[in-house]
Design a protein that fits this description.
The chain is of the alpha+beta class. The protein has one domain. The chain has three helices and ten strands; from the N terminus they run H-E-H-E-E-E-E-E-E-E-E-H-E. The strands form two sheets. A six-stranded mixed sheet has the order 1-6-7-8-9-10, covered by helices on one side. The protein is globular, with a radius of gyration of 18 Å.
Amino acid sequence: MKALFAALALSFAAAPAMGQAVSEYTEYDVEADCSVVGRSLDGEGDWADFVCPGYAGYPFVIRYTDGRESATYGFATESGMSTFSPFNYANGTVEWRVRIDRDIEIPVAAIQRWFLADIDGNWSREVLVVSRVGQPDGGGACAVAYIDAQTEGANQRARQAADQLAETFTCGSDQPMVEETVSDLVPAG
């Protein structure tokens, strides 16, 4: 009987408290897992929009334009992230920061690694972009922080930024947090 109570106590201690954030991960391959919702026609440039499955029914959109990508997570009607100036691409894994409230999982932030090319075409820079996830009832989707992925503790700093900024961030008026070492890479806007 004591073992049963000990096991129950451990399970409650391990279970997320109401509103606590946890990380969940999704992986994707644009060509295999995502649906094309728009694509350039002959002579209209080089672009495509893909809707991809996210976490807990929250989709995300990857927009490809002339060797650059951007992403919008969750339910949003406008693009959530300006692309970087250098050629770039997103890693195929998204870390979702999920709030658990009364056993309901709500993705509130997404963290994704971006690879950026230098002037010689080498993929020499990496940035973690922390984004607010658009909710079904509104609130917008946009980048809230840019973290230098090539420094120690970057993933932890990205999670902290997600947990502290995403839910209260006002897209369109609040300015994202930008680490100084990647400020030259962050899109204006």
